[in-house]
Amino acid sequence: MIDSAAAVARCQELVDLARARGADAADAACRAGASESVSVRLGELEEVERSESEEISLRVFVGRRSSSIQTSDFAPEGLAILAKRAVEMARLAPEDPYGALAPEDRLFSGEAADLELLDPDDPSPEELRAAALAAEDAARAVNGVTNSNGSSAGASRSVFGLATSNGFARGYASGSHTLSASVVAGEGGGMETDYAYRTQRFRSDLPGADEIGREAGERAVRKTGSTSMPSRKMPVVFEPRVGNGVLGHLLAAMSGPAIARKSSFLIGREGEQLFDSGIRVREEPFRKRGLRSRYFDGEGVPCSERLLVEDGKIGGWLTNVASANQLDLDLTGHAGRGGGGAPGVSASNIVLDPGTVSVEELIADIEDGLYVTGLFGQGVNLVTGDYSRGASGFRIRGGEIAGPVSEITIAGTLPDMFRALTPANDLELQRGIDVPTFRIDGMAVAGE
């Protein structure tokens, strides 16, 4: 796999080729990655997989017209053909009054300290297999576990390079380590499945295989004997593993492109008290070993630490160049670069600040409620804010976690949910979006 310096060099080469063929401006983004994973099931090796990929995308501007094209052919003649076709396509494209490169004076130019995104520890297939087996053994050892869906361990490395025709040329390397286990508990029609899964930048930061396996087994066993529950409005408590999705909906609605397309329920709510005044949501792009850490975005604009929600109010939209131009806003360093096509919007590490009460205190006054540990379905409308998801978890009776429940639906509107959100104090930084356990009163629960 190429390193970040080689990725940047290839981007620069492609930009120069595009300029030589008539592009007024251009940028190129290169991604390369390598991963290896080992899966086991019932104590036997099931799959060993290794993959490598390299791709580069080119975006060119001819006047106000632009095009984007992508290839995995890094041969000199292949890049030359790519640049020629991109310019030809741009000349035929409709004019876009908003698309452009980031202005030169807004590009990242500072020193980039090591964010510790790449672990020098590169585990062998034998080590990965041993970790996967240990996780599965621990899960199967939990009393009540009756079968296994398997366990896996993996490691990956990647590089990203970006170059623009107005002087930006940077790249970085990153990596991750994963460990997971999934098992079945119960028999016949009462079987339940659950899992445990963790990803970290450094292998040494992963929980032990025994801990991952035990968590998977205990979660599956706790779900056995699940029933439905009566339909009515009640308090709903989200565990962190599923609660971060609710915050993800907020981020999607705050994206500049969604605002520009008028496809966000947040339009017109900029100064509104969206959450309780004590709620704060932070973005931490420079966190060491963070899963979404970065110094610059997909257009070369510097990222920054910022409050996305302060005193319960949103702090503005997340923009890339096109949406900032369309909305007449400043750049916020949130451009995201996927494969081909124009940049989208993506956030860095996001944190919902914890509250002051424990989880036990959070649910102590709930006479009848729901503790959600699983969500499924895609019933979220970001245009209207309507929210409806299938759910499973546990009933709360008299301030205590009671028996498991499943085959239920929870519903509400995101503005109402945000306004009623109360966080506990159990925040842990484990994911790209991290939240503590939180409670939302007044949600509609549909069961039996």
UniProtKB/TrEMBL annotation:
Domain Metalloprotease TldD/E central as annotated: residue spans: 119-223
Residue span, Metalloprotease TldD/E C-terminal domain: 231-447
Spans through the membrane: none
All copies of domain Metalloprotease TldD/E N-terminal, residue ranges: 29-90
One Pfam family of this chain: PmbA_TldD_1st
Domain of life: Bacteria
Family: Belongs to the peptidase U62 family.
Identification of the protein by name: Metallopeptidase TldD-related protein
Biological source species: Qipengyuania profundimaris
